[in-house]
Specification:
By secondary structure, this protein is mainly alpha-helical. The protein has a single domain, classed as Helix Hairpins (Orthogonal Bundle), CATH 1.10.287.3610. 91% of the residues lie in helices and 0% in strands. α2 runs parallel beside α4.
């Protein structure tokens, strides 16, 4: 049983190492990180419902997952094809397209969920400040 938990801890450690690699080396991950923080802060400010939080957290996870998988794909392609190959480029481009689809979809979902409450909160705050 102890060995089981030791292996799980090692797996968790390896996952954190991978996470840190993505954050440290992928510039688009920095954009995702800033967007994630902003969305969470706005969500807290406008008081999202539990259901809205569930959807927002899910789409944030989808974008991050796409980014992590794309990074893994790029690394494996670079390993398998150190010389530029047209199919290697296509594989990388398709992986990047998956991240783009996830990111654009998350923006649309975020606007659908947070757009109206955000505008209402800004108008209310503006009215209070500049009455």
């Amino acid at each position: 049983m102890i060995k089981f938990f030791q292996k799980r801890l090692k797996s968790f450690k390896n996952a954190l190492i991978g996470w840190w690699y993505v954050i440290r080396t992928q510039h688009n991950a920095w954009i995702h990180a800033v967007a994630t923080v902003l969305v969470v802060l706005v969500g807290l400010w406008i008081g999202l419902s539990t259901w809205d939080w569930a959807v927002i957290i899910f789409v944030i996870a989808v974008v991050w997952t796409a980014e992590f998988l794309n990074t893994a794909l790029e690394i494996v392609v670079d390993l398998a094809s150190p010389n530029l190959h047209p199919l290697a480029r296509v594989g990388k481009d398709v992986g990047a397209a998956a991240v783009l689809i996830a990111a654009l979809s998350s923006v649309l979902i975020g606007l659908l969920i947070m757009g109206k409450p955000f505008i209402e909160k800004v108008q209310y705050t503006w009215h209070l400040l500049f009455k």
